[in-house]
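Example record used in the benchmark description.
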Amino acid sequence: MSRTLPLLLLLVAALVTTDASGQTWRGLVVAPERRCSPYRADDYSYPQSVEASIVRELGGIYSPYTGQRFASTGETDIEHMVARSEAHDSGLCAADAETRRAFARDLLNLTLASPGLNRGFKGASDAAEWMPQRNRCWFAARVVAVRQRWGLTIDAREAETLETVLSGCATTELEVSGGDWADAAQGSVPSADALRLWDDNGNGMITCAEARRHGIAPVRRGHPAYPFMRDADGDGVVCERNDG
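Model output (C-alpha coordinates):
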Protein backbone atom coordinates (compact mmCIF):
# COMPACT_ATOMS: atom_id res chain seq x y z
CA MET A 1 0.00 0.00 0.00
CA SER A 2 1.28 3.47 -0.87
CA ARG A 3 1.99 6.03 1.82
CA THR A 4 -0.54 8.41 0.23
CA LEU A 5 -3.67 6.40 1.09
CA PRO A 6 -2.98 6.16 4.85
CA LEU A 7 -2.32 9.92 4.91
CA LEU A 8 -5.66 10.60 3.22
CA LEU A 9 -7.45 8.33 5.66
CA LEU A 10 -5.84 10.19 8.54
CA LEU A 11 -6.92 13.52 7.03
CA VAL A 12 -10.54 12.42 6.80
CA ALA A 13 -10.42 10.94 10.28
CA ALA A 14 -9.15 14.25 11.64
CA LEU A 15 -12.12 16.07 10.10
CA VAL A 16 -14.70 13.62 11.45
CA THR A 17 -16.05 14.70 14.83
CA THR A 18 -18.34 13.02 17.31
CA ASP A 19 -21.44 14.64 18.77
CA ALA A 20 -24.70 13.48 20.33
CA SER A 21 -25.90 12.11 16.99
CA GLY A 22 -22.68 10.22 16.25
CA GLN A 23 -19.86 10.94 13.81
CA THR A 24 -20.10 13.99 11.57
CA TRP A 25 -18.09 15.31 8.63
CA ARG A 26 -18.47 18.89 7.42
CA GLY A 27 -21.68 19.06 9.41
CA LEU A 28 -23.09 15.86 7.91
CA VAL A 29 -23.93 12.80 9.95
CA VAL A 30 -21.73 9.90 8.81
CA ALA A 31 -23.90 6.79 8.60
CA PRO A 32 -24.54 3.84 6.27
CA GLU A 33 -27.30 4.23 3.71
CA ARG A 34 -30.64 2.92 4.93
CA ARG A 35 -33.89 2.41 3.01
CA CYS A 36 -36.55 2.90 5.66
CA SER A 37 -39.40 2.92 3.13
CA PRO A 38 -39.76 1.75 -0.49
CA TYR A 39 -38.27 4.02 -3.14
CA ARG A 40 -40.54 5.13 -5.99
CA ALA A 41 -39.30 7.57 -8.61
CA ASP A 42 -42.81 9.03 -8.87
CA ASP A 43 -42.48 10.28 -5.29
CA TYR A 44 -39.62 12.48 -6.52
CA SER A 45 -41.33 13.93 -9.57
CA TYR A 46 -40.29 17.20 -11.20
CA PRO A 47 -41.61 19.16 -14.18
CA GLN A 48 -39.71 19.17 -17.47
CA SER A 49 -40.01 22.97 -17.35
CA VAL A 50 -37.26 23.05 -14.72
CA GLU A 51 -34.85 22.40 -17.58
CA ALA A 52 -35.14 26.04 -18.70
CA SER A 53 -34.01 27.20 -15.26
CA ILE A 54 -31.03 24.83 -15.38
CA VAL A 55 -30.01 26.26 -18.76
CA ARG A 56 -30.22 29.80 -17.35
CA GLU A 57 -28.07 28.77 -14.37
CA LEU A 58 -25.46 27.20 -16.65
CA GLY A 59 -25.53 30.01 -19.19
CA GLY A 60 -26.30 27.62 -22.05
CA ILE A 61 -27.12 24.04 -22.96
CA TYR A 62 -23.96 22.70 -21.44
CA SER A 63 -22.82 19.70 -19.40
CA PRO A 64 -20.38 20.58 -16.60
CA TYR A 65 -19.38 16.92 -16.44
CA THR A 66 -17.71 16.91 -19.86
CA GLY A 67 -17.69 20.53 -21.02
CA GLN A 68 -19.85 19.53 -23.98
CA ARG A 69 -22.29 22.02 -25.50
CA PHE A 70 -25.46 20.83 -27.18
CA ALA A 71 -27.65 22.19 -29.95
CA SER A 72 -30.86 21.70 -27.95
CA THR A 73 -32.14 20.28 -24.67
CA GLY A 74 -33.48 17.37 -26.70
CA GLU A 75 -29.90 16.06 -26.62
CA THR A 76 -29.58 16.19 -22.82
CA ASP A 77 -30.98 14.69 -19.63
CA ILE A 78 -31.87 16.57 -16.46
CA GLU A 79 -29.34 15.19 -13.99
CA HIS A 80 -29.53 15.05 -10.18
CA MET A 81 -26.02 15.34 -8.75
CA VAL A 82 -27.19 13.59 -5.60
CA ALA A 83 -29.44 10.97 -7.16
CA ARG A 84 -33.01 10.78 -5.94
CA SER A 85 -32.64 7.18 -4.79
CA GLU A 86 -29.39 8.11 -3.05
CA ALA A 87 -31.16 10.93 -1.19
CA HIS A 88 -33.97 8.54 -0.31
CA ASP A 89 -31.49 6.14 1.28
CA SER A 90 -29.73 9.04 3.04
CA GLY A 91 -32.72 10.25 5.02
CA LEU A 92 -35.56 11.26 2.71
CA CYS A 93 -37.08 7.81 3.05
CA ALA A 94 -38.61 9.25 6.24
CA ALA A 95 -39.66 12.57 4.65
CA ASP A 96 -43.15 13.57 3.54
CA ALA A 97 -44.26 13.76 -0.08
CA GLU A 98 -43.89 17.55 -0.34
CA THR A 99 -40.27 17.40 0.86
CA ARG A 100 -39.39 14.67 -1.62
CA ARG A 101 -40.85 16.64 -4.54
CA ALA A 102 -39.09 19.80 -3.39
CA PHE A 103 -35.78 17.95 -3.31
CA ALA A 104 -36.30 16.64 -6.85
CA ARG A 105 -36.80 20.23 -8.12
CA ASP A 106 -33.97 21.91 -6.20
CA LEU A 107 -31.77 23.76 -8.70
CA LEU A 108 -28.77 23.42 -6.38
CA ASN A 109 -28.82 19.72 -7.22
CA LEU A 110 -29.71 19.89 -10.93
CA THR A 111 -27.51 20.02 -14.01
CA LEU A 112 -27.43 18.64 -17.57
CA ALA A 113 -25.69 15.56 -18.96
CA SER A 114 -25.79 13.55 -22.14
CA PRO A 115 -28.17 10.57 -21.92
CA GLY A 116 -25.27 8.18 -22.54
CA LEU A 117 -23.32 9.50 -19.58
CA ASN A 118 -26.30 9.96 -17.28
CA ARG A 119 -27.95 6.59 -17.91
CA GLY A 120 -24.92 4.53 -18.86
CA PHE A 121 -22.31 5.67 -16.34
CA LYS A 122 -23.45 7.92 -13.51
CA GLY A 123 -26.98 6.66 -12.95
CA ALA A 124 -27.75 6.55 -9.24
CA SER A 125 -24.07 6.34 -8.21
CA ASP A 126 -22.83 8.40 -5.31
CA ALA A 127 -19.60 10.42 -5.39
CA ALA A 128 -17.54 7.46 -4.18
CA GLU A 129 -18.72 5.42 -7.15
CA TRP A 130 -18.58 8.06 -9.91
CA MET A 131 -16.94 11.45 -10.40
CA PRO A 132 -17.03 13.63 -13.54
CA GLN A 133 -13.99 14.11 -15.76
CA ARG A 134 -14.40 17.87 -15.55
CA ASN A 135 -15.49 20.28 -12.78
CA ARG A 136 -14.76 17.77 -10.03
CA CYS A 137 -14.28 20.45 -7.39
CA TRP A 138 -17.58 22.14 -8.30
CA PHE A 139 -19.35 18.77 -8.31
CA ALA A 140 -17.91 17.72 -4.94
CA ALA A 141 -18.84 21.03 -3.33
CA ARG A 142 -22.37 20.80 -4.73
CA VAL A 143 -22.84 17.29 -3.37
CA VAL A 144 -21.82 18.47 0.08
CA ALA A 145 -24.04 21.57 -0.13
CA VAL A 146 -27.07 19.55 -1.26
CA ARG A 147 -26.62 17.04 1.54
CA GLN A 148 -26.27 19.89 4.04
CA ARG A 149 -29.36 21.71 2.76
CA TRP A 150 -31.58 18.64 2.98
CA GLY A 151 -30.11 17.18 6.16
CA LEU A 152 -28.94 14.01 4.41
CA THR A 153 -26.48 11.58 5.90
CA ILE A 154 -23.30 10.51 4.11
CA ASP A 155 -21.50 7.18 4.27
CA ALA A 156 -17.84 7.04 5.28
CA ARG A 157 -16.55 6.02 1.83
CA GLU A 158 -18.23 8.96 0.10
CA ALA A 159 -17.00 11.39 2.77
CA GLU A 160 -13.47 10.10 2.23
CA THR A 161 -13.73 10.50 -1.55
CA LEU A 162 -15.13 14.02 -1.35
CA GLU A 163 -12.53 15.11 1.18
CA THR A 164 -9.78 13.83 -1.08
CA VAL A 165 -11.13 15.93 -3.95
CA LEU A 166 -11.96 19.07 -1.96
CA SER A 167 -8.64 19.14 -0.11
CA GLY A 168 -6.90 19.68 -3.46
CA CYS A 169 -9.25 22.36 -4.83
CA ALA A 170 -8.08 25.92 -5.41
CA THR A 171 -11.69 26.86 -6.27
CA THR A 172 -15.07 25.19 -6.40
CA GLU A 173 -16.50 27.55 -9.02
CA LEU A 174 -18.09 26.09 -12.13
CA GLU A 175 -15.82 26.23 -15.18
CA VAL A 176 -17.92 27.10 -18.23
CA SER A 177 -15.23 28.44 -20.53
CA GLY A 178 -15.50 25.67 -23.09
CA GLY A 179 -12.25 23.75 -23.17
CA ASP A 180 -11.30 20.61 -25.08
CA TRP A 181 -14.53 18.69 -24.59
CA ALA A 182 -16.74 21.62 -25.55
CA ASP A 183 -14.57 22.31 -28.60
CA ALA A 184 -14.90 18.67 -29.54
CA ALA A 185 -18.67 19.00 -29.60
CA GLN A 186 -18.15 21.70 -32.23
CA GLY A 187 -15.73 19.48 -34.17
CA SER A 188 -12.77 21.83 -33.67
CA VAL A 189 -10.38 19.61 -31.73
CA PRO A 190 -7.32 18.62 -33.82
CA SER A 191 -7.23 14.89 -34.56
CA ALA A 192 -3.81 14.74 -32.92
CA ASP A 193 -5.46 15.54 -29.58
CA ALA A 194 -8.23 12.94 -29.86
CA LEU A 195 -6.30 10.12 -28.22
CA ARG A 196 -5.19 12.38 -25.37
CA LEU A 197 -8.82 13.32 -24.72
CA TRP A 198 -10.70 10.06 -25.20
CA ASP A 199 -8.33 7.06 -25.29
CA ASP A 200 -8.62 6.21 -21.60
CA ASN A 201 -6.60 2.98 -21.71
CA GLY A 202 -3.87 4.35 -23.98
CA ASN A 203 -4.10 1.63 -26.62
CA GLY A 204 -4.20 3.97 -29.60
CA MET A 205 -7.89 3.42 -30.31
CA ILE A 206 -11.13 4.91 -28.96
CA THR A 207 -13.90 2.48 -28.06
CA CYS A 208 -17.61 3.16 -27.92
CA ALA A 209 -17.45 2.73 -24.15
CA GLU A 210 -14.87 5.51 -23.97
CA ALA A 211 -16.86 7.71 -26.35
CA ARG A 212 -20.00 7.31 -24.26
CA ARG A 213 -18.08 7.94 -21.05
CA HIS A 214 -16.97 11.30 -22.43
CA GLY A 215 -20.36 12.16 -23.88
CA ILE A 216 -19.32 12.31 -27.56
CA ALA A 217 -21.28 9.31 -28.90
CA PRO A 218 -22.55 8.75 -31.51
CA VAL A 219 -19.38 9.70 -33.39
CA ARG A 220 -19.74 10.71 -37.03
CA ARG A 221 -17.22 10.90 -39.85
CA GLY A 222 -15.45 14.26 -39.54
CA HIS A 223 -15.34 14.16 -35.74
CA PRO A 224 -11.73 14.13 -34.47
CA ALA A 225 -12.31 10.83 -32.68
CA TYR A 226 -13.62 9.03 -35.76
CA PRO A 227 -10.23 8.10 -37.33
CA PHE A 228 -9.34 6.22 -34.15
CA MET A 229 -12.57 4.18 -34.04
CA ARG A 230 -13.80 1.06 -35.85
CA ASP A 231 -16.73 1.75 -38.18
CA ALA A 232 -17.66 -1.87 -38.84
CA ASP A 233 -20.49 -1.19 -41.30
CA GLY A 234 -18.78 1.77 -42.97
CA ASP A 235 -21.83 4.04 -42.69
CA GLY A 236 -19.87 6.96 -41.26
CA VAL A 237 -21.38 6.72 -37.79
CA VAL A 238 -19.88 4.82 -34.86
CA CYS A 239 -21.59 3.93 -31.57
CA GLU A 240 -25.07 4.71 -32.86
CA ARG A 241 -26.27 1.54 -31.17
CA ASN A 242 -25.49 -0.02 -27.82
CA ASP A 243 -22.47 -1.88 -29.16
CA GLY A 244 -18.79 -2.08 -28.08
